[in-house]
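Schema walkthrough. Field components (list of strings):
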Amino acid sequence: MSTVDPSLRDDIIAAIPNLRAFAISLSGSVDRADDLVQETLLRAFANISSFRPGTNLPAWLFTILRNLFRSEYRKRRREVPDSDGAFAATLTTNPDQTTHLDFEDFRTALDKLPSDQREALVLVGASGFSYEEAADICECAVGTIKSRVNRARKRLGELLAIEDGDDFGPDKTTRAVLAAERA
Amino acid sequence: MNDDQSEGQSATAEAFMNTPSRGGGTALGTDIQAKIGQHLRAMYDDVVRQGVPDRFMDLLAQLDKAGGKTPEEDGGGRT
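Field assembly_structure (string):
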């Protein structure tokens, strides 16, 4: 049994908030996400000897979490988010620059994406991983990640443009300016 | 993420700042994509800002007490 190096332990703790956010996006449930993070931590500590110091710790942890989720996913489908949605349940503050209504639409649209597209979008667009790192985590080619991200944002764009064109598209003033520029 | 902060951020920026070359070079597309990026990050960061819930600190304390012996001893590698 190996004990975990204190600085490595600190790095693992520092990754927990990101692991939770990723887990919520995967599972659609805060409770489920926290269980996933707990399993991930247990697994990481049990197998810490297989982590090579100097390599990408967050990517290693994300890979463990994703694999745990995938193996569980075969047994049961993604939980249907509670009526307010998993992310809404975690909202503690009103995020800047956005209205609650915008968020409702966004979450609804995000839930409509296929899970492989959603996870690619979250890894690259929110977790801050490079395409290469996301490809490692998802165990697929870089080109596959790029294509999933492209399809995800295209689909989201379509959903949001249709559902809430006024909030997501340019407002009337912007449209007028754009029209004027084209004229 | 730690190793490649700048690269990671540039991928993030690339994912949302540039309009995809296929099919959508319009100002409308760019605007929507920027909003999508903002919303996604705002949603994600709201969870991140909550920090580390107590249950995880308790768990780590238990693991420490166990002297490196983890409750889970399946030796499953990276699963």
